[in-house]
Amino acid sequence: MKQNSRLDQILDRTLLFSFTSVGYGLRKGNFKPLPRIEGRRIVVTGATSGLGLVAARELADLGAAVVLVGRNQVKAEEAARQIQRITGNEAISVELADLSLMAETRALADRLTAGPPIDALINNAGVLVAARTETSEGLELTLATNLLSHYVLTETVLPHIKDGGRIINVSSGGMYSQRIRPADLQFKTGEYTGTAAYARTKRGQVILTEIWAESLADRGITVSAMHPGWSDTPGVSDSLPTFSKLIGPLLRSPEEGADTMVWLASTEEEVPSGKFWLDRTPRPTHMTDKTKERPEDRVALVEGLRRLAEL
Ligand SMILES: NC(=O)c1ccc[n+]([C@@H]2O[C@H](COP(=O)([O-])OP(=O)(O)OC[C@H]3O[C@@H](n4cnc5c(N)ncnc54)[C@H](OP(=O)(O)O)[C@@H]3O)[C@@H](O)[C@H]2O)c1
């Protein structure tokens, strides 16, 4: 594992450079080539667009048997065809599920556990929506998609993940701005702001990563959260058009954004469990004490998710 260099520590304090292609460009010189991972079964959610699509393609290129999880059949099948054509890897399959719906998430988990054991699960699907929206199950959409479905999917497939396997939660640097609020997981109080709701779900992913890392240590399962930086994807241009235009040419390419995801799923380098990664290096999980949760908040988060998921 690479230690933070002095340059990296300075970069870390300047979000504009750290999170953009400038940061990636300055750090990538230390990156080692990725190993072949022939036949490893890797499940990627949100594999039909942006970072998930690139990560799935690159993992397929390394030889993995990739399961693409998408919600749109046409898009998912086109993604599979595209990946097979580019990589020559035929071991690409598609699973359909709208992850904002827990019934579909549970059905997906059941299908996955009926198949061969899983080497790595990448919880990548995510949304940032402008207005508070409820799903047909009465769940707030951002919470359901970005956090609750990851919780349900991961908890349900856990017995089917190989000992020594990996779980990768695609979080965001946005989580630095928010503290978890377990008493209001569905954003019912106060004015709804899409970016704040998004950031709180991303904070929740980081907390779950730490909790799972501890509980799964005896099975040798490595659990990681990662931050892709600011990357040029349909998700960013659709949800944050002004930001996307403002940062413009400094945005990372999807390949640069997905790099740490692919590295975490494939590397033979030492990866300590429970960390938050950007550019193959663990980063702090807080920039201010204001976002730090208490131990009882962590317990309340898991209880709240369990209750909402009706597990
Ligand atoms: N790009 C960045 O700069 C950035 C920065 C920080 C964090 N992230 C995180 O990185 C992840 C990928 O983002 P991206 O930028 O690649 O966005 P994207 O291009 O919008 O891709 C998001 C993926 O999630 C899927 N998805 C969304 N809602 C879903 C649902 N209800 N059920 C199933 N799948 C669903 C989308 O499916 P469809 O193709 O059907 O829409 C798509 O495949 C997200 O978790 C995001 O929060 C991205």
Rg result: 18 Å
What proportion strand? 5-15%
The helix-strand sequence is: HHHEHEHEHEHEHEHHHEEH
> Which kinds of small molecule does this entry bind, naming each only once?
NADP nicotinamide-adenine-dinucleotide phosphate
Structure commentary:
The chain is of the alpha/beta class and 311 residues long. It has a single domain, classed as NAD(P)-binding Rossmann-like Domain (Rossmann fold). The protein is built from twelve helices and eight strands. α4 packs across α11, α6 runs parallel beside α7 and α7 runs parallel beside α8. The mean pLDDT is 95. It binds NADP nicotinamide-adenine-dinucleotide phosphate.
Can I get a quick summary?
This protein is of the alpha/beta class and about 300 residues long.
Key attributes of the depicted protein:
Rossmann fold, single chain, 12 helices, binds NADP nicotinamide-adenine-dinucleotide phosphate, 311 residues, alpha/beta
